[in-house]
Specification:
Protein name: ABC transporter ATP-binding protein
Shape: globular
Structural class: alpha/beta
Mean pLDDT: 93
Distance between the termini: 27 Å
CATH architecture: 3-Layer(aba) Sandwich
Strand order of the largest sheet: 5-6-7-3-8
Number of helices: 7
CATH superfamily: P-loop containing nucleotide triphosphate hydrolases
Order of helices and strands: EEEHEHEHHHEHEHE
Keywords: ATP-binding, Nucleotide-binding, Transport
Oligomer: single chain
Radius of gyration: 17 Å
Largest sheet: 5 strands, parallel
Low-confidence stretches: none
CATH topology: Rossmann fold
CATH class: Alpha Beta
Pfam families: ABC_tran
Domain ABC transporter: 4-212
Number of strands: 8
GO molecular function: ATP binding
Number of domains: 1
Length: 212
């Protein structure tokens, strides 16, 4: 069953055509890599699927929903309930604490504060970052920030996980950690879509599409 379907999507930036009648069908539970040169449209595809960017023509269907307008109540509901992100730049609130950042992932989860705090404590233990709740993000190393990003991903309700160059700035040890958790989430039934230049990452995926 398709969970993501892009049909004849065209996307322009000014006069430049980034995607031209692009189509892609992603099955539920798939682990897909998107590779290609810089400027080929890899991140644009991810941003369209993640409802961060619109497009000029074509159709996008996400888990049966279509005619989704950016920043609408429908798109916001899909973002809350179905989509998780993992970015190269981590996309954390640098001036805030680890606890604040992880609590955001649980904002719409129907649990009380005590239950949420326990989930945060457990996921930090899983990341070997026990007791980091009060640490500010800017105080952490790049590897630690990436682990916080993974922890956030583990906490947030999602069916589709979008990862944009998630290992781009990491050493081999932290790259393997990212791949381990993406694979774990995939085995739990989540659909993973990874944009990457790293062929070692692409090799771990079920399918790779390469953009010219």
């Amino acid at each position: 069953m398709s969970i993501v379907k892009m049909e004849n999507i065209t996307k322009k930036f000014g006069d430049k055509i980034i995607l031209n009648n692009f189509s892609l069908d992603i099955q539920e539970g798939e682990f897909l890599a998107i590779t290609g040169a810089s400027g080929s449209g890899k991140s644009t595809i991810l941003n369209i699927i993640g409802l961060l960017e619109g497009f000029d023509s074509g159709k996008l269907i996400l888990d049966g929903d279509e005619n989704i307008k950016i920043n609408s109540s429908k798109s916001n509901k899909i973002l809350r309930e179905k989509i998780g992100y993992l970015f190269q730049n981590f996309a954390l609130v640098d001036e805030e604490t680890v606890y604040y950042n992880l609590h955001l992932a649980l904002k719409y989860v129907k649990k009380n504060k005590k239950e949420k705090d326990e989930l945060i404590k457990n996921v930090l233990k899983q990341m070997n970052l026990e007791g980091y709740e009060k640490r500010k993000i800017f105080e952490l190393s790049g590897g630690e920030q990436q682990r916080i990003s993974i922890a956030r991903l583990l906490l947030k309700p999602s069916k589709i996980i979008l990862a944009d160059e998630p290992t781009g700035s990491l050493d081999v040890k932290n790259r393997d950690l990212v791949l381990y958790y993406l694979n774990k989430l995939n085995k739990e039934g989540k659909t993973i879509i990874v944009v990457t230049h790293d062929m070692e990452v692409a090799k771990k995926c079920h399918r790779t599409i390469s953009l010219n």
